């Protein structure tokens, strides 16, 4: 007796859609570095997050936060993941000690189907103009991507959002 097997369509994992993006207000909280983090400075969580300007044109200022929020939609037989992986591709950043990187990686938790991926300019050396890209992945598969254009403030404009928000 011969068995014939037929391959069915490939089953895709959870999908994601970007539901908001731009400049964000909130409070950075001290947190322990998580496994999977690769950054020049420890990545910190954010609380009481709210978008204050929807734009992909970001003016770099100290304490300015920007990012994306994605909604994950599980597709059977997959369940909602607890976290996703985030990669932020940016111009070369150079710390005062000479360490450089063009990429920041960190995990982001999924809460009620939503996950926020963002970046905060906490040091002058992080405020690099040019293209920045946020990529959200799940088990190695890209599920969302957003490009931003970061610029420096014009002469005479505020160079800090610290204390605002």
From TrEMBL:
It holds the Pfam family DUF3859. Residues 20-150 form the DUF3859 domain. It comes from the Bacteria. InterPro entries: DUF3859. This is DUF3859 domain-containing protein.
